Amino acid sequence: MTASEPGEPAGLWLVGARGSVATTAVTGLLALKAGIIEPTGCVSAQVPFDQAHLAGWDDWRVGGHDVVPTPLAKRAEQLAEAGVIQYRVLEAVREPLAEVETQLCDGYQPATHRGSQADAVQRMATDIAEFAERHALARVVVVNVASTEPEFPVLPEHGTVAALDAAITEPGRVALPPSSVSAYAALRAGCSYVDFTPSTGIRLPALQQLAAQRKLPYAGSDGKTGETLVRSALAPMFTSRALTVRSWAGTNLLGGGDGRTLADSDHAGSKLASKTRGLAALLGGEVTAPLHIDDVPDLGERKTAWDHVSFEGFLGAKMSLQFTWTGYDSALAAPLVLDLARFTAAAHDAGQSGPLGALAFFFKDPLGADDHRLAEQFVALRDWATSL
Ligand SMILES: NC(=O)c1ccc[n+]([C@@H]2O[C@H](COP(=O)([O-])OP(=O)(O)OC[C@H]3O[C@@H](n4cnc5c(N)ncnc54)[C@H](O)[C@@H]3O)[C@@H](O)[C@H]2O)c1
Prior knowledge:
Elements: E1 10-15, H1 20-33, E2 60-66, H2 72-81, H3 87-92, H4 94-101, E3 104-106, H5 117-134, E4 139-144, H6 161-168, H7 178-188, E5 192-195, H8 205-213, E6 217-219, H9 227-240, E7 244-254, H10 256-262, H11 265-283, E8 291-295, E9 302-312, E10 318-328, H12 329-349, E11 354-355, H13 374-387
Parallel strand pairs: 1-2, 1-4, 2-3, 4-5, 5-6, 6-11, 7-8
Antiparallel strand pairs: 7-9, 9-10
Bound molecules: nicotinamide-adenine-dinucleotide (NAD).
């Protein structure tokens, strides 16, 4: 792919394209193109990012992979039923939604895949390359919004591109989790890559080496949309006021597909780890911070987080703060997916490669940056984006 010109079409390729976050992002993008909604929640649409060189809503074409056949229109209806998407919006975008449907391909599923993982990478890279060719796209950003995976063991083969290539060409061998197969396919197709999930994805030395060789930018991990967002705003308040946080306990109740996935403790492990790392970095490792996630199907697409913070002030006085956050997770996540696509495409255009630490503002477990404080992350994003 060659450098893009302003106004040229750009591609957004969603892995997990039929999920709640993806369907909300696509419906929202189509509604923004039609001019029937405001870009509420889109960081990139506000001052000063309106001055940055970002692709406009009209410039984007969407495609993607998924492992289920549920039509996008059906998923959008379910989201409307659940209160995430307004019916008037759904009705207005039915036609372009049907067009996006034609751009979706089968994802990689180890249980049904025949052949080697190298074959899967090749086939998926071809899907993305053909999408780019069909729409004459100078840039495609691949965003992983597929179900959170169980943690995958680190293998010696993950160390270099050569070792990984040798491992994945063995038929039947599972040397990579599906998220990393997708990340590999993205890089092979010459695309930038964003991981909105806590899955392994691009976080393997071999894949990061490949991104460096191909001069491709990437960002992750795990979108910061609810409880962790509030934590990253509040924790610096305690530290800057020299108040000692003694414990910070969190309970998450969620329904939807994510709730079902995270009800399985294997799948929840990576999510709990990415949530916990941020708080430890903000407050220091000594704080007691129990955290758990419960699946409550009755909540549908809503998620409630309840946090109890116990802290100590002058003369050892013990005090506490509690907050309850209730949100539609997909409505919080979808505009960030669009922001990330715009910023990452602009970084690629500007010749940046490697981890985009300036996008840490969007993530629970940022790649390429150590600062978890929300206000500082916003300043870093603003300075970076306006200098592109
Ligand atoms: N909603 C939020 O606020 C938020 C915040 C941070 C991270 N996330 C992450 O975003 C992801 C998506 O969340 P969601 O609520 O849309 O979940 P979801 O269950 O509604 O959607 C996930 C989609 O991924 C698909 N999928 C599963 N395995 C796949 C594979 N190997 N290849 C391609 N597609 C595959 C599923 O079929 C499904 O359509 C999750 O990993 C979640 O943890 C969401």
